[in-house]
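Running co-folding for zinc ion.
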Amino acid sequence: MPWVLGIESSCDETAAAIVSHEGEVAADVVHSQVELHAPYGGVVPELASRDHLRACGPVVREALARAGKRLDEVDAIAVTNRPGLIGALLVGVQIAKGLAFASGRPLIGVDHLVGHLLAPFVRRVGKDGALSQTPEFPYVALLVSGGHTALYRVDAPLAASIREIGATRDDAAGEAFDKVAKLLGLGYPGGPIVDRLAQLGDASRTKLKAPMAQRGSLEFSFSGLKTQVAELVARTPPESEAAIADLCASFQATATKVLIDKLIAAALLEGVRDVVVTGGVAANSELRRRAEAAATRAGLRLTVPPFASCTDNAAMIAFAGACRFVAGERDDAALIASSQTLLPRRTRRGPASARS
Ligand code: KG4
Ligand code: ZN
């Protein structure tokens, strides 16, 4: 059974993991830069690259030590080479090239989005001692993170068998959570704080208009929703904790409803039985609740990977790399880093009027 070393440095996590083609995890190390970027309220690319340079070597060594393996005992070296911050990606890619050259092991580039979409196959043991659930192909996945929000049909574990069927035209859902938290002076990253406050608030106090809610469209838009909150805050600044919680509840209810409505619509349209919700925003309590209720109503089987597989990690990259390795796919020292995904886009960013 092949074992793959995966390296991830596309944004603000430096991570290394050793995972088998069966999804078994021998080591999974994540160094987060969240505290480094928190004073700026967002990821500062230059700081991210510098911190990846500091952390990447030690993180890889730690993963090998935890797995009890030498570098020449893994079968391939996989690395996220797209999409992401270019300076951040370059650090992981160059380190992976060096390790592949030194060990004679094949180098395999992985699209970060493919990693997120295959994350449910990384087998993790839950608190109850049971292995995490895996979906069956084909499935429709909602990928919701700080950088990406899109729906995909996944027919097999290779990029060529993954098709985007709808995406955001502007902000990602996580970005909208973070911006709303910033508007309300709540700190960074805002998603978990908005989630916690929303549970104390009353969503019916403020009516927000759901963006791109029309039936038949699988596209999303979150910048208008954020603007609605900004205008409300400018007009009547929320002065009590309760008023802030109410606003969080309204925003969260509107954002999560549109995400789950479209996930279910996409699954029915594609005629699949399995649906997956993945990415950092999959931690959101209301999103999970709505996904479970809606999937049950529609007779669909829902898989939400454990939190460690939803946020950026290298285990999903190692697994996606193992799938490419088994399929005979290889890269070499010419592997480039790119800010763009390999998965063809159906949804253009920007307003409809700006389309060519
Ligand atoms: O997948 P991730 O760790 O990194 C990216 O690839 O972007 O996602 C981070 C995003 C952030 O925007 C964060 O605010 C959001 O996920 N997030 C949440 C929650 N936990 C994390 N958003 C809403 N509710 C949460 N509980
Ligand atoms: Zn990600």
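Result summary
The chain has a mean pLDDT of 95.
The first strand starts at residue 3 and ends at 8.
Job closed.
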